[in-house]
Amino acid sequence: MSTGLWIILDHLVALLGVATWFAAGVTLALRRIRPAFALLVAAVLVTLLRVATVAVLAGRGWWYVQEKVLLGLPMLAAAGAVAVLLAGRALLPARRGRADVPAYAVVAVLTAAYAALAGPVVTFLVGYPLTVGTALIVISLVGAGALLTARVVAPAARDAAEAGVAPAAEGRPAISRRRFIGWTGGAVVVTAAGAGTGLSFLPPESVTLGGGRPRSSRPAVSVADLRGAGSPVPGGTVRRHVLTAQKATVRLPSGREVDAWTYDGEVPGPAITATQGDLIDVRLRNADIDGGVTLHWHGYDVPCGEDGVPGLTQRPVRPGEEFAHRFRADQVGTYWYHTHHASHVGVRKGLYGTLVVRPRDGQRAGEPAAAEPVDLTLPVHTFDGVVVIAGRDDRTDHPAPPGAPVRLRLLNTDSDAHRIVLAGAPFRIAAVDGRDLHQPGEVSDVGLRLPAGGRLDLVFVMPDAVVALVVDGDAAGGLRLRPPGDTAGAPRLDNASDLPELDLLGYGAPAAVPFDPRRPDRHFTMVLDRGVAVVDGRPAYAQTVNGRGHPRIPDQLVAEGDVVRFTVVNRSLETHPWHLHGHPVLILSRDGTPSTGSPLWVDTFDVRPGQTWEVAFRATNPGIWMNHCHNLPHAHQGGMMLRLRYDGVTTPFDGSHGGSPRHGH
Ligand code: C2O
Ligand code: CU
Known about the structure:
Elements: H1 3-29, H2 33-60, H3 66-95, H4 103-125, H5 132-153, H6 155-162, H7 177-199, E1 207-208, E2 221-222, E3 238-251, E4 257-263, E5 272-275, E6 279-286, E7 296-298, E8 322-328, E9 333-338, H8 343-349, E10 352-358, E11 374-383, E12 386-389, E13 396-399, E14 405-412, E15 418-423, E16 428-432, E17 435-436, E18 447-450, E19 455-461, E20 467-471, E21 479-482, E22 522-535, E23 538-545, E24 555-558, E25 563-570, E26 576-580, E27 585-590, E28 593-594, E29 601-602, E30 604-607, E31 612-618, E32 624-629, H9 632-636, E33 641-646, E34 649-650
Parallel strand pairs: 1-24, 2-34, 3-6, 5-10, 11-14, 13-21, 22-25, 24-33
Antiparallel strand pairs: 3-4, 6-8, 7-9, 9-10, 11-12, 14-19, 15-18, 15-20, 16-17, 16-19, 20-21, 22-23, 25-31, 26-30, 26-32, 27-28, 27-29, 27-31, 32-33
Helix pairs in contact: 1-2, 1-4, 2-3, 3-4, 4-5, 5-7
Bound molecules: CU-O-CU linkage and copper (II) ion.
Copper (II) ion binds at residues 543, 576, 629, 631, 634, 640.
């Protein structure tokens, strides 16, 4: 069973535990002896079951259970043991109709219920990591709950105490009002102090070293000076574009109208293509996008000053302003561009386009062309729930002569993964995230997962029959490649949704990689979760990294030349497509299973619930780079983003990264 399912099962067992402990406490308070006894036994059994689920999760990784093992379970075990002793001692004779249930037994069982509740509350509100502050808050709240309960269920004792008389000598808890106020007041102070340290007093600017050397005193270089080359390679061309960001009503082929934010009035924006070594020269103008826009070159390892991150590498481009990008198209493959300002709104509304760079030597070796090649760039985007492929929301038919080499460049510009099926021809995945795979084998009858932000280049030789590309199981939509004259043919699609998903970690053949990832200079662990954290200066139910939200997640410091390793753990119930700017990362393993196929270099890897990914890269592109979840609402509203900072690089911009419209001043 996957770790994600164990996480869900553990949540369910925890909630069942809360329910049974509370039910036992309430029935006991109502002096319903038999049900109370049965529920108490059930609560104990569920608690033991919980120990088992937590033990399994612990085997999957300490990150998944830390707060449960250190706080939730011990607290429940202690309170539960006391409850069983006290209530059991009273219940056994009472069951035979011989005694009443004393108030302290009720208090003990309800206290165990509070302890049972506290565990999942900590898991949902705080998550990883557990801090001393959190533990103090929780223990004091459970204690306050016990005292309050004692006040309510032991009125006799209270009255006696208020009268200044010793309580009846039955061992009932006797709490005076003064002592009660003292204790609860104390709990409130501890809670406030804990919450304060947890939320407010963390330094917003700090670095983590990942086990490497601290900051040196080398002279600083500004990201604003890390700009691209001024000329193409000899024989190369300058690819000049002016992109104007503007609002537009876009009419899709089905007739549907979309109120879009666009580059040049089109969705997707103008396709930028180049041959390796050309110079990309793009001037971004903003006509009327009020908050501002930028151009970020997703997956393209441009010099940092071209990276288009507002508040970090440049100022956002306001209406009437412009920003000029220049960089050499050294990297071959399929990429895309999008705004990085309030991108959870801007990209969704249409501020994206494709960037495709083809090799200078033209046709790739080993592909004898019997007919004109077909090379289609297909960004998949969702507008108001409708999947739009390369700007079309209807089914697209495209002619393709039999024998023609076909390359379909799929891009996911959404925040959630898409499932792709190609039916009618065996094919290869030539490239992932723009980078060629080594000896990719032919596959058919597989589903492909295209993570948010990710790309897949599918290649095949056009057969003498129709080939269909199906997105998210929608057999009526998608793309058809048709041999000339074939107007009606269609491949079998009925099993498209049952096809097994191809695991890229075992696809293609191994090859040498340019560094030894087993000896990293730095190793950073990012535990992804949900919890209460400060995001952009205010508390939120955030998407957290190591318990914090942007910009309070410490920067990761690296030095040029370092081999850097990331461990990315997803404790949450949502998928987080993790994306590092400026560098492709090499996938080492997922859930402890090493990557055995072609070296897999990606800029976005989909960390699903309960997964643990190990990746590595060499720090060869100085700058300050965003490192974030590419589910853009997670990143820009939820706080799930941080920075990877090279030693000796500074930014003159305001440091807010312009991630959210709240910074749109
Ligand atoms: Cu595709 Cu930080 O971006
Ligand atoms: Cu996410």
